[in-house]
Each structure stands twice: as structure tokens, then as C-alpha cells.
Amino acid sequence: EGRVEVYHDGKWGTICDDQWDDRDAEVVCRQLGLSGTPKALSWAHYGQGSGPILLDEVQCSGNELSLDQCKKSDWGQQNCDHIEDAGVSCDPFTGTEVLLCQSDAVKGTVRLAGGRSPGKGRVEVYYNGDWGTVCDDGWTDLGAQVVCRQL
């Protein structure tokens, strides 16, 4: 995870967060060889870079192998400041579904608490006589799908 920087024409620079979303993050994670759940972060979440802002208006479909293949502004053409530097988190934790299915804590005794409507809320499990929460380390959509199926 961190601020995304790209190398072009002999120099490193940042990417402006205009149009920056999770599909762009997915391409960055893929390009870096990282698997997991990609998350786009904006407003210099990981700090402001220095030097040139090399890309703006990046709009990936999410299937590209690198940022070069995405729709974007011309190199160096941007209307941003470093406060808008784009960042990415490539969640390295995977396999939550397997962990949940093998856990003694999740044998049919799951509930959602604190949600504003049915079907939403904090995941809680009943184990050894007590209700407790599920830590979000490694939590992905796959884990959520397992809980939804159980409910």
C-alpha cells in the first residue's frame, strides 16, 4: 500500500486522483504482481509526493495488465496539486472464505448487529457461550458471501 508513482521519460511522478477508483487500483495491484482486494485511496492518503504529476483522469476498466493500457490524460497533462495524489492498498490477505468455513466459531450461529436495516451490520458469531465480533484482517467479499449464505 502507498502513494502510486510512475516512471516516464526518465523521471518518477505521481498520479492525480481525478476519476481514481477501485478499478484503477486493481490494475496497479496486478501490475505490481500483488493479489488481494484492491482499494483506491485519494487526497494524498499516503502523503503528498514531490516532483511532477505525470498522470490525470485515469479510467481503467479493471481488466488491463498495466496503467499504460488504461484511458488517461496525456503524460504530464493535468490540473492537480499533490494534495490529490492517488494511493492504492492491495490487501494481501486472501482465503477468508476457507477460514470462516473451517472455524468452529461459525457453525450456523451468526448474526448481524448494529445495522440500520435488515441484512446489514457488524458480523457476530456465537462461540463457547458468548457472542463476539469477527476481526476484519483478511476480510473480503468472499467472507461476506459466506455469512450471507448462512443467514
Q: List the domain count as a whole number.
A: 2
- Bulk shape: elongated
* Lateral strand order in the biggest sheet: 1-6-4
CATH superfamily of the largest domain: SRCR-like domain
- Proportion of residues in extended strands: 25-35%
Q: Give the CATH topology of the largest domain.
A: Mac-2 Binding Protein
Organism: Lanius ludovicianus (Loggerhead shrike)
Protein name: NETR protein
Keywords: Disulfide bond, Glycoprotein, Repeat, Signal
Disulfide bonds: 16-80, 29-90, 60-70
Secondary-structure blueprint:
Blueprint: E1 2-3, E2 5-8, E3 11-15, H1 22-31, E4 37-41, E5 53-55, E6 87-91, H2 96-102, E7 110-113, E8 122-127, E9 130-133, H3 141-150
Helix pairs in contact: 2-3
In short:
The protein has 151 residues and is an alpha+beta fold. The chain folds into 2 domains: 2-89, Roll (Mac-2 Binding Protein); 109-150, no CATH class.
Describe the structure.
With 151 residues, the protein is an alpha+beta fold. It folds into two domains: 2-89, SRCR-like domain (Mac-2 Binding Protein, Roll); 109-150, no CATH class. 18% of the residues lie in helices and 25% in strands. The chain has three helices and nine strands, in the order E-E-E-H-E-E-E-H-E-E-E-H. The strands form three sheets. Strands 1-6-4 form a three-stranded antiparallel beta sheet, with helices on one face. A hairpin with an 8-residue loop joins strand 7 (110-113) and strand 8. Helix 2 runs parallel beside helix 3 (141-150). Residues 94-107 have low confidence and may be disordered. Keywords: Disulfide bond, Glycoprotein, Repeat, Signal.
